[in-house]
Amino acid sequence: MNIAKVLDAKGLACPMPIVKTKKAMNELVSGQVLEIHTTDKGSKNDLTAWAKSSGHELLKHEEENAVFKFWIKKG
């Protein structure tokens, strides 16, 4: 997977991971992938719903050492 940008949103509470993700996504072109790292447990539902409603594709997500990682492809 070719990652265009990595966003560190660790330590931020809702809604900041979504706000930062939206801003970072605006800097990418269609087809590029954004990798997001967050510690907010609500991010799984928030980012999944946001990606779907914004026309982007959540490629995968995983949890590693209390850090949630997401890969979203810009639509």
From TrEMBL:
Q: Which residues form the UPF0033 domain?
A: 7-31
The record's annotation in InterPro entries points to: TusA-like (IPR001455), TusA-like_sf (IPR036868)
Q: From which residue to which does any coiled coil extend?
A: none
Q: Which Pfam families match?
A: TusA (PF01206)
Q: Which family does it belong to?
A: Belongs to the sulfur carrier protein TusA family.
Could you tell me which PANTHER family the record lists for this protein? Answer: SULFUR CARRIER PROTEIN YEDF-RELATED
Name the chain's protein. Answer: UPF0033 protein YrkI
